Batch of 4 targets.
Target 1
Amino acid sequence: MNTLFAENLRKLREAKGFSQTQLGNQLFVNHSTVARWENGTRLPDAAMIPRLAACLGVDANTLFRLAAESDESPNVIMVDDSRIILSDGLAVLEEVMPNATVTGFIWPQEAIDYAKANRVALAILDIELGTASGLELCRTLLEINPRTKVVFLTAYPDYSLEAWKTEASGFLVKPLTAENVREELKKLRYPFQAGGAEA
């Protein structure tokens, strides 16, 4: 359940003196939709959040942040130009984060397009992506969503100093292992709920 968003939405609605029905009428949704948002079983979509924020008199980024922090099925991406490393890495990420939607990309532009259409909670990026740069991809992803947590993945530890200049959240050396991923998740700048049993 998305309790963080739900509890804050209820408090904001009550502070404005709205009933669920009154808020629903302003948003042109049924009061049962508002009820589901407030009981944590559903989140409003990205198009609805700015309208909701306007009705409640708050900054839309506040609601986006609450939705991101309370998302129990986060979108996780991995970008690596090696199909073998990508395939092995995705298997590790799915083991560590069983509740996440884990998606892999060979091409940086595909990852960018995905990030524009989906709220990415965690991005694991190879630093060298053929002719492209994982450092530049990191900057682009953070422009799309500053709260995306970025962890760099590389076979070359010497890159770590340059990687930290991008405001990345972490750094891993290949190959990915479940143990290393779990340890890195504990160090991330923003809280991240991996889900599943801890090893």
Target 2
Amino acid sequence: MNSQQWIEKADHYIMKTYGRYPLVPVRGEGCWLWDADGKRYLDFLAGVAVNNLGHCHPRVVEALRRQAGELIHCSNFYHIPQQIELAELLCGRSFADRAFFCNSGAEANEAAIKLARKYSREKFGPDRYEIITALSSFHGRTMATISATGQEKVQRFFDPLLHGFKHVPFNDADALRAAVTPTCCAVMLEPIQGEGGVVAPSPEYFREVRAICDRHDLILIFDEVQTGIGRTGKLFAYEHFGTAPDIMTLAKALAGGAPIGAMLAREALAGSFTPGSHGSTFGGNPLMAAAAVAAVHAVLEEGVLENAVAMGAYLTGRLEGLKERFPFITEVRGIGLLIGAQLSIPGADIVKKALERGLLINVAQERVLRFVPPLIVTREEIDLMIGILEGILTEV
């Protein structure tokens, strides 16, 4: 079928939870996608920061093929070698001692919320349960994670939200300090707000946050669902800030495009998850864990982190050049290959025109063009993207 036929069938059968663009991808390789009509697209969205290794990275594809021929799924009632290997790999490269696996970022954040509350209840009693999060944050689409999210547009129509969350401005340590009460048990933050408009804090912010948490015996949770697995040029974004959390969540890029989530924690907290306290049927099954092991090794061994740093600096420089020419670009910001261009005008039409010309980008918070290409992107591909974007901005 051609693209239009697929779209017509989707309109008949698929719930309209997304404002989908008229694109039907059927094949991908590296930084490129092809649709059902054979048109090629340069992908600077990467499945919303999922395809950090590009589309169909050979190591991930081979791991999936091999594992699918041996064992796709078994229960977490048993020990799963691929899951154990992945846990060892992630803990060995981070602050964490233990891992819990699930299927998505929202589920990883649910696990973090539950662990923080259970640990605090066991240590301090039932009156410590509130979790402080940031305005403009995004933590998922479940009832708990939209309650944690600091965006009214995500929460609209789903009242009553879960009790026990409060929101403060991001990058404001004084506001956080003032929000701490005896009922608080944790602080949950993204190192860089992606859906919030690619907002990075000041260098000292997380040191102050860590000090506040230590003073009040609060658990510090970092949501690295979008920033983790190399997106910022380090395996985990918290490494940029010299501050480690007590709990960290991962998903998106963890398995190179296959669905998996993870919640990592220090030993003292992890002990609160005992048999029956939490679980996931598919979480960390052999197929997804094998893909994740291959993806993490590829990030660590193939110069991906170094390329993210170098190409992030190059892309930022090229975008700064556009900023000098087009006054409606007011700021270019980000770390590694998580980059946003703040506009003084709405960005939706720019995204639409880019799609028509074979370029995939998106807009966050209505006025921030977000660039999250695969971490294997080349200078030539960045130059091609800039050329397409420059033509669109000239028309604007």
Target 3
Amino acid sequence: MATKKVIAVDLGAESGRVMQVGFDGSRLHIDEVHRFPNVAVNANDVLYWDALRLWHEIQTGIRLAAPDSAGIGVDTWGVDFALLDRDGRLLCNPIHYRDKSWEGMMDWVFERVPRRELYEITGLQIIAVNTIWRLAHLVKTNSPLLETAHTYLTIADLFNFWLSGSKTCEFTHASTHQIFNPRLNGWDYDLLKRIGFPSQMFPEIVPPGTRLGAYNGIPVWTTASHDTGSAVVAVPSTTENYAYTSSGTWSLLGLELPTPVINDAAYAANATNEGGVNGTWRFLRNIAGMWLVQQCRAVWAEQGKHYEYAELAALAEQAEAFTAFIDPDDDEFYQPGDMPARIREVCVRSGQPAPETPGQIVRVIYESLVLKYRHVLERLLQASGRTVERMHIIGGGSRNALLCQMAADALGRVVVAGPAEATALGNAIVQFVALGEFSSVAEARALLAKDADARTYEPRHTAAWDDAYDRFENLVKGP
């Protein structure tokens, strides 16, 4: 069987890649065509994504890919959006989800839509990254953008529009914006009205696998445009009793379910419901992930100490275990900055010894991160009534053997690591299903489950980790 190839454009918060994925009838092959940094830009005290630079890099990557590609699909991080004028021109660079414009906006929104009601409407966890706070900020500040904006697009669909000319929003991404109502399966116009945001600019929502048009003769498909949605497509499981963690800048830990879970236990757990492929739902929590290590690494680089991620993991493995813990989701760690200093300050404030060396600091991050995995998983299982036998860690974090082994130890469950390129593979699988190369996502997952590259970690030293978890739970604030 001749190999069919598609292009997977995968944009993360730290970097972007254009990948070529081929399928020869028995195996998926993936090649990195072009990689580039994704650098946020601060201008006039506002943090933006550099959308035009990303568009330039996307075009460069597509030019380097095979000209006979059967499709292009774009996935990106969630929650962010772009505004176009009536002629389809971008009004300004999209505002970054870590911009300070969210500050104070939760209370402003809750005065108009009470917190519990907002959760009941949208099923999304209350977290600083949510789109609704930035929409509310535009309303509160009477932004002139609202006078000229004609079309609202998710960040992924901005690039889909530039590729295809189609002004639509893809389901999995739209579901992350906290203005989508799972029960209505669409935008909640009443919610928009209550916060004062114009509703006429919101386009049609389309499912993954929709053909939007073509770019230089190559069909453009909606994939699961939220990168976590694409990553979950590539979970190599043939059973339902599993949990997943998509590990990158964020760790998104959750379950794949046939319906959303919106109840008191889910609200108490601050769990989120995001759309998946084929009508599935990702019941999950956003956890800070490798963001803390990324920021530490940047600070050390400014000090003239350049560490590769593998080197930091080796230093962490040599450091003493269980000296101190942090809540990775503490608001102290949300903004960019001197993360090593912040971690030390939080440890001292909670009566724990402050980690000093890079190895000690990264050890604290890793241990705290996997203990937060356990904290979140217990609450998701309670709210959903599900049981799980194993955890699949996918994405870049699956390459980190220390983190994966710690996760198995902390969870007391088998961890299956890989594929590392889950997001690009999931992106491509949705295209291949649309092209008829796979009959279903399940068929593609069964193929991935046979891949010898996956690594299994058995839990060890569970008693020591149980003791550590008790200490960690005493420090964690909130759900």
Target 4
Amino acid sequence: MGLNAAEQVTEQVPVDDFQALEEKVYRTIERYKAARQAQAAAERDAQRVRQQLEERDEQLVALRREGVQLRKEREEIRGRVEKMLEQIDSIAEERAS
């Protein structure tokens, strides 16, 4: 754009209109920067939440395994206690006879 073209644009656009347009452009730039910062923050938050979710999933898997193991142990102990009670009943019956 040559000097003549710039002068023609200046002549066609009043200074107040140009300043208003310039302010709008700067506000738009600031909004764009703010939106990019907000997007970056949101992406960091999303990554943190994904990581926390992954950790929770790992904890859930570990807790489920532990629950299964505890149920197995409970059943084993129940069987052993029932066996002991049967033996006690057997001894009690022998003494009663």
